[in-house]
């Protein structure tokens, strides 16, 4: 296997040959490096030390074996649905280390989270605060809450994944936050525990994190003057990775900058990283089915499609595509497209590659928001997921079968 960029070199170092994985489990399939996931988690945990807690954002990669391995390392979890909650619990995660984010939590989801005793709800609106207070009261419980504030900071990322601007649906306007905190503090079934913000994803600069933190700290001081004391400050996730030569700050650099800015403060810190832990731990393995050179363009039809990895179609995301076996023939420019009936179904455009039908390709940096955003569009079964640990490739989610898909439905 040739020069795999970034951290996926780990896959080679672990002597697990991708061609035998493809033969054994079929393509397309997702392949993750456990060593890389561990290393990235540990970078957060080591930098944070006793200053706080890492709550891995489950939405990035919610495979239960991945969650299990993170739980074993001591990770907490950031969830956004009851489904994610049940995954974490099934993986052996500690409920007391779960924070619950998201703008649309249902009462039944709140109930389940209160029943298992999660660490905190990141509340995103006043209406949600009222519903949570009522649900907790009915259960005779006290719900720990953080308000997710919207600091109106430009995270300088793709508009679909920017969350901290006032035109975004997320969080409570930072200017209104003191009023909402007072309201929360007055409700007997709520306990004000913290403050939370998350300004966006794939951030490649430190400055927006620090700007948001500055605004948060001003608010924390204002709250203290009002007699509202917090136990933790949650800075969200969002640290970017290298897809195409981006140079985001290192994990330790981000965490250390936050620790420095908050020196002398008593609040624990919480981070909710997703992408920076798993993106470069994963590849999407796909086979070239047909080559279709035309007068205008050369198309390579691969067996992974937008239903397997929607990032290129949805965000015009660029992911490196590398041949698994090194080829020495002359290269040509190819558009790599999937079998789905949509013009927008492409994995990569204008890539210089030497291709033959049957070749295996690796779509790099596919460990985050790859499988978790996959669908059954065109009635395509979802791909298998494989977790490589040392020289062993574990099948941690089998490919769906068409029979399983049909069995979910009912004739009239
Ligand atoms: C509330 C919240 N926390 C954490 C994350 C994880 O973000 P990332 O994968 O960019 O680290 C997200 C997604 O952007 C989020 O919405
Ligand atoms: N799905 C996005 C990230 C979304 C972050 C969720 N808040 C991506 O692939 O880049």
UniProtKB/TrEMBL annotation:
Can you tell me which residues bind pyridoxal 5'-phosphate?
A: 238, 272-275, 369
What are the protein's GO molecular function terms? diaminopimelate decarboxylase activity; pyridoxal phosphate binding
Q: Where is the active site?
A: 341
According to UniProt, the reaction catalysed is: meso-2,6-diaminopimelate + H(+) = L-lysine + CO2
- Name the Gene3D superfamilies on file: Alanine racemase, Lyase, Ornithine Decarboxylase, Chain A, domain 1
Q: Source organism's superkingdom?
A: Bacteria
Q: Which InterPro entries match?
A: Ala_racemase/Decarboxylase_C, DAP_deCOOHase_LysA, De-COase2_C, De-COase2_CS, De-COase2_N, De-COase2_pyr-phos_BS, Orn/DAP/Arg_de-COase, PLP-binding_barrel
Q: Which residues form the Orn/DAP/Arg decarboxylase 2 N-terminal domain?
A: 34-279
**For this protein, what is the EC number?**
4.1.1.20
The answer, when asked if Lyase is one of the entry's keywords, is: yes
What quaternary arrangement does the UniProt entry report?
Homodimer.
PANTHER family, alphabetically? DIAMINOPIMELATE DECARBOXYLASE, GROUP IV DECARBOXYLASE
Role: Specifically catalyzes the decarboxylation of meso-diaminopimelate (meso-DAP) to L-lysine.
UniProt name for this protein: Diaminopimelate decarboxylase
Q: Which gene encodes it?
A: lysA
């Amino acid at each position: 296997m040739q020069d795999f960029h970034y951290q996926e070199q780990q896959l080679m170092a672990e002597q697990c040959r991708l061609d035998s994985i493809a033969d054994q489990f079929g393509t397309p399939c997702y392949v993750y490096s456990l060593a890389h996931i561990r290393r990235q988690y540990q970078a957060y945990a080591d930098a944070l030390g006793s200053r706080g807690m890492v709550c891995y954002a489950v939405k990035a990669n919610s495979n239960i074996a991945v969650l299990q391995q993170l739980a074993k390392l001591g990770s907490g979890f950031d969830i956004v649905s009851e489904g994610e909650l049940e995954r974490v619990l099934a993986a052996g995660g500690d409920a007391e280390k779960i924070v619950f984010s998201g703008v649309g939590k249902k009462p039944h989801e709140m109930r389940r989270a209160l029943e298992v005793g999660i660490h905190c709800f990141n509340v995103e609106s006043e209406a949600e605060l009222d519903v949570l207070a009522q649900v907790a009261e009915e259960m005779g419980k006290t719900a720990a809450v953080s308000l997710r504030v919207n600091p109106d900071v430009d995270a300088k990322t793709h508009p679909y994944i920017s969350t901290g601007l006032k035109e975004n649906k997320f969080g409570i306007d930072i200017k209104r936050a003191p009023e909402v905190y007072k309201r929360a503090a007055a409700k007997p079934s709520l306990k004000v525990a913290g403050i939370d913000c998350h300004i966006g994803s794939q951030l490649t600069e430190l400055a927006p994190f620090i700007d948001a933190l500055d605004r948060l700290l001003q608010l924390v001081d204002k709250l203290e003057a009002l007699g509202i004391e917090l136990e933790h400050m949650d800075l969200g996730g969002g640290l970017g990775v290298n897809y195409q030569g981006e140079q985001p700050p290192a994990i330790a650099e981000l965490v250390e900058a936050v620790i420095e800015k908050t020196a002398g403060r008593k609040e624990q810190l919480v981070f909710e990283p997703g992408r920076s832990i798993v993106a470069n731990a994963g590849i999407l393995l796909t086979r070239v089915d047909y080559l279709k050179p035309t007068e205008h363009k050369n198309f390579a039809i691969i067996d992974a499609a937008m239903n397997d990895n929607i990032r290129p179609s949805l965000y015009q995301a660029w992911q490196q595509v590398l041949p698994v076996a090194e080829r020495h023939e002359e290269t040509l420019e190819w558009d790599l497209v999937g079998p789905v009936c949509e013009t927008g179904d492409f994995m990569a455009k204008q890539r210089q590659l030497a291709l033959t039908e049957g070749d295996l390709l690796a779509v790099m940096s596919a460990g985050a928001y790859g499988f978790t955003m996959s669908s059954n569009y065109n009635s395509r079964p979802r791909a298998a997921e494989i977790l490589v640990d040392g020289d062993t490739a574990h099948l941690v989610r089998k490919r769906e079968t068409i029979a399983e898909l049909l069995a979910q439905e009912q004739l009239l």
